[in-house]
Amino acid sequence: MSFLDSIIAAFKALRQNMLRSILTALGIIIGVASVIVMSSINAGAQQKVEEQIASLGSAMLSVAPGASRRGGRSSGANSAPQLSERDLKAIKEQVPQIIDATGEVRVSAVAVASGADWPTNVSGVHAPYPVVRNWPVAEGRFFSEQEVSSGRRYAVIGATIVKEVFGGENPLGAQVRISNIPFEVIGVLATKGQNQFGRDEDDIIIAPVTAVRSRLVGRDATVPDQLDAIRILFIEGADLTRAENQLREVMRTQRRIRPGQQDNFRVYNVAEFIRARNETAQTFGVLLAATAAISLIVGGIGIMNIMLVSVTERTREIGLRLAIGARKNDILMQFLVEAILLCMLGGMIGLGLGIGISTLVAKLASWDVLIDASLVLIAVAASAGVGVFFGFFPARRAAQLNPIDALRFE
Questions:
Q1: Average pLDDT over residues 28-56
Q2: Which pLDDT score, from 0 to 100, does residue 279 have?
Q3: 122 shares a domain with 169
Q4: Which pLDDT score, from 0 to 100, does residue 177 have?
Q5: 89 and 180 fall within a common domain
Q6: N or C terminus of the chain: which is more exposed, having fewer CB within 10 Å?
Q7: Could you tell me if 85 and 174 lie in one domain?
Q8: Does residue 196 sit in the same domain as residue 149?
Q9: What is the DSSP string of 91-133?
Q10: What does the mean pLDDT of the chain come to?
Q11: Residue 29 shares a structural domain with residue 155
């Protein structure tokens, strides 16, 4: 019996018991579909994280005020004295391997233009901000360091502000009033979308730090040139652990922190934080995928059970085939092909179902889903592997039947 004859015979056997074949393959269908869905969502989430890290800058560190302490008690985050322009200057001059750095002052405000108003976030920054944040300007331009020094009331806005405040019209050259202070729009930032925490990155207005500090925030009596944060971009491949230690030394000197005293500032790597958060989600995703893979094993056991039943039901047929000249290898191949074919059909149905569910989840739930071609190949190969592994024992049992005993079987 040729391999093609074995496939034809397997199709006929499966078609004769169509309902039983479908129910038997159900475990494989559910297993493959579950693995595809879980793995696709997990891969999509991973890709999104990598995109966010790239948009933040994989070699970027940030400094922010920490918690002040009195009598051994913490006053809470950001309660320590603010950072200052002097801190920014010292970091640029004393920390090696820096590409550039920018300070940032943040405030919530209402943007008004063209009869529309929108509550948003305003960040006062320095000219290197687009380089440090890896956030280019899509239209218009960014302000220069000279314009920052002179306190020009310029604004570079995100795509959400263009949509909500300017109705999607070209805003360049128009004025937007922020807390009743007019700013001229000179640029529109490239679209970023939502970040890892679900916040709309494009819902932002960027302006010179001097204008935001003097017009929107107000100067701090103790730190007139205050900054809420400092972002530092290092050269590609820089040792960020070493850079973080050097950064801490400079900041401790700037803030006159004596040896043995705790830092009243924080240095953090946003990319590492996002990676750590994603690792937890990945672990959960792997557990879900492993749970889904158990369905393949359960399905394989079901197939083995049904194939053993099939061998018992077709004992006389096997005996007749052996009596008229069929070899044991022919019987082995026939039943093995039947098991593999059943698993492959279940795997293909499960594959289609998994891709369909993944696509539906991506559209309805707005989740990031990535269906990798290698994942499809693995799913098909796994289905065939289950067929071989769980189909071999029933096929071998069928091949080892004694023709005389098989013909006498009732």
A1: 72
A2: 66
A3: yes
A4: 95
A5: yes
A6: C
A7: yes
A8: yes
A9: HHHHSSSEEEEEEEEEEEEEEEETTEEEEEEEEEE-TTHHHHT
A10: 81
A11: no
